[in-house]
Write a structure and sequence with these properties.
Radius of gyration of chain A: 19 Å
Organism (chains A, B): Actinoallomurus iriomotensis
Structural class of chain A: alpha/beta
Protein name (chains A, B): Glucokinase
CATH architecture of the largest domain in chain A: 2-Layer Sandwich
InterPro entries (chains A, B): ATPase_NBD (IPR043129), ROK (IPR000600)
Family (chains A, B): Belongs to the ROK (NagC/XylR) family.
Shape of chain A: globular
Order of helices and strands of chain A: HEEEEHEHEEEHHHHEHEH
Oligomer: homodimer
Strand content of chain A: 5-15%
Distance between the termini of chain A: 19 Å
């Protein structure tokens, strides 16, 4: 993107696994730089555990890579300054500087889609924790459900989009999607209402715990589930309110940026590099 | 204290409530400054909700004050630069720079005494959240117990020193202290062992949630309960381990500083003021 944050080139490709995925990332970056003559810096957002400070992607369950020094690799390949970080933190940066969390010194940006994680800003500082901070999707909410991470009762195991669809299907025998469950909730269909209420309770448990620790002024819900809008935010705000006493109340809102949040955030990181040089 | 962190003067007095407490703090600071000729700066640590960035004590349930601008009041009274912050964060600063969390860029310092709270350092930054960050004592752990804060099931309501003693007394009819319960645990007394195991589970629930969000490399347990040493740390480390999967494992240890942690930390804050001037 350019300095006005307008997209100047786009390359999409499927994600292979392991070493092939690393090669695909490097090739994609190379292609984008070639398509954008005069490119001055690179910002890269990746999933999994990644240390934004060192630019090393430590681990991704889904992609299957380990300890990939992306910053060094891309610098070598392009000769440009490179910022590398977590996709969710990139999205958080976009929401914090230009989107729904703008103006807040303390915020939580929580995309809820296939996975769940949080970009956590405290005192204006985006928390990295060597790549381990903000993993709210793998906080136990006490549910009796196995999680892909190997744990039990993680928020993601019961409140991600696929988890909501799976729980509805288990209850009714009808295969569906989280969007369809939300539509049924709006119509008052009892099974959907019950699944939704449980989901809200689990999200409330985790977000209240995060509020107690991180004191966000605003919680921004993103990802596919944010399409439910007030159907989600209304009961969720009530649920969180019921769990707090003297704590500061976070405002709940939906994300401004949809799928492109990570791109915008990584672009902002790249611009930061140019400003600090 | 002097620049070598040696204590040069001490004043102790009982804590009155409300406005009288504010006057007592100001008088005490005045006395200390008078006893230490050449005093260059003041560091003050207070309980409750306090914004270390503005130096305003917003609220304390126990003391009963509200929105006291301590930094401004003390500056006016002494003419010295003043740092004001939370007692638990002051203790955290002492442990982080000179004590059990030294060398860690991510840490949680958790005094467990009459109350429970955490000083949370992420990426080397001590989290303030306008004074609301780190209130782990008032995170719900799902216990069926009312809390002084008005909530139900807060960690503090079941795992503080008085709460442990109360739970043991309720079970056995015998009034006691948390230290005495720990001594009975060491002897294998079944009721004490049961109360302790429950306590460990609740502490593990809250500390695992904090680990998922804040990614501490080390968790420092302070306060009265830390006197139990390995009797607490051993099972607590096992409990937390059982709740984590891909997350970074925190090392558990006890605090270096006991009662004086807050004083040392506030002194370090005062020294910081002199260095940045």
């Amino acid at each position: 993107m350019d300095r006005g944050l307008e997209r100047t080139a786009t390359v999409r490709r499927p994600t292979p696994r392991g070493d092939a995925a690393v090669a695909a990332v490097l090739d994609t970056v190379g292609e984008l730089v070639a398509q954008a003559p005069g490119a001055e810096a690179v910002g890269l957002a990746v999933p999994g555990i990644v240390d934004d400070e060192t630019g090393v992607a430590a681990w991704s369950e889904n992609i299957g890579w380990r300890d990939v020094p992306f910053r060094a690799l891309i610098q070598e390949r392009t000769g440009l300054p490179v910022a590398v970080g977590h996709d969710v933190r990139a999205g958080g940066t976009a929401e914090q500087r230009l989107g729904a969390a703008r103006g807040a010194r303390n915020s939580l940006v929580v995309p809820i889609g296939t996975g769940i994680a949080a970009a956590m800003v405290i005192d204006g500082h985006l928390c990295v924790g060597s790549g381990y901070a903000g993993e709210i999707g793998h906080m136990s909410v006490g549910a009796d459900e196995p999680c892909v991470c190997g744990g039990t009762g993680c928020l993601e195991a019961v409140a991600s989009g696929p988890a909501i669809a799976r729980r509805y299907a288990r209850r009714t025998g009808r295969e569906t999607t989280a969007d369809a469950v939300a539509a049924l909730v709006a119509e008052g269909e009892p099974d959907a209402v019950a699944v939704w209420a449980e989901t809200v309770g689990w999200l409330g448990t985790a977000l209240a715990a995060a509020t107690v620790l991180a004191a966000p002024e605003v919680i921004v819900i993103g990802g596919g589930l944010s399409r439910a809008g007030d159907l989600l935010l209304g009961p969720l705000a009530d649920d969180i309110e019921g769990r707090l006493t003297f704590h500061r109340r976070p405002r709940l809102t939906t994300a401004r940026f949809a799928d492109e949040a990570g791109c915008v955030g990584a672009g902002l990181w790249a611009l930061d590099l140019l400003e600090t040089q």
